[in-house]
Please model this.
Amino acid sequence: MLTPTALLCELETTAGRLLDRHLAASKEWFPHELVPYSRGRDARPGQAWSPDEADLGGAVIGEAIRSALLVNLLTEDNLPYYFRSVERMFGPDGAWGTWVRRWTAEEGRHAMAIYGYLMTTRAIDPVELERSRMAQVSGGVTPDPPTAHDGFVYLTLQELATRIAHRTTGQMLGDTAGYEVMMRVAADENLHHLFYRDMASAALEADPDGMVLAMERQVTEFAMPGVGIPDFARHAAAIARAGIYDLMVHYEQILLPVVVRQWRVDQLEGLGADAEAARDRLMAHLARCERVARRMADRREAVLPAAV
Model:
């Protein structure tokens, strides 16, 4: 197996190529052109917020969508800690450093666009949002992959999960302006996902044993970056009940297409004993995820007619 430093050296050329591809595919965009500022108004100090004052272009949203909007924004707001973790894993020099800084600039733009939309439309309680932001960023709790191997795996899964969460939230909003903001953010997240996914594929060729061990760790222990948000469990439960992001989405749209179809972990040959054992545990975990996800989906389907 390669050490993390040796792996990064091995993949430096690949990182440069994928960085160039990313820059060529990226589209310049401006948050101020997407935020509907005409819906905004001054807020009085101490003024209580009410859901009735939200101006969402005629759309009405429930608590699940509000939870998704809050979690989506606060996930982006915790960027200083993500930058620290990713730069620690990859280093500040060469193609790696250039990528980390570019990625950071793009992620920061996401927070600007979503925040501007939420404040002008008053879609969620601004006091709750700011207090949650202060608590989350002050706490500094984030997933922190220990090695470059783990980082490739985690970031691939996390960027895809974030893209799905942003996109689905935008589709459920029912507001054209909000939809455009979330789609633009989701498009960036997809490009980030492709960079990490293809880096992980190259790392799998260079060090299959090390990557399979990392896959088992990161897939079985996966946590979204919003774990430090106050009341995250409550928000996550609401988001799952609404079908925005739940275990079935995680299995069908992330684990299955990436781990099985893209990385083909079940077809790898020549693995050492430790990696073989890790793959067996990983495949067993995927099977359990599918069974549990289907049971949860069946229960939700059974409850929905009664609720209606």
